[in-house]
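This follows on from our talk about sequence and fold. Go ahead and set the record down below:
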Amino acid sequence: MSKLNVQVPTAGWRKSSRSGPNCDNCVEVAFAGGHAFVRDSKNPSGPALVFTPDEWSAFAGGVKDGEFELPA
């Protein structure tokens, strides 16, 4: 396992447009330094997950393809 030496951004965080104004179970995403960062919106000063461009692209493609849809 390798460690990335990246700085978590302090600005530019955004929630999904589908999140309500008082969303308690949301995540936020920010893009900086060529990486995607994801954090819990309830704990903005807490840890953030960091994804490489390839990892983020694979995730976004899975979302678009319905890979993470819950069974009916």
The chain is about 15% helix and 20% strand.
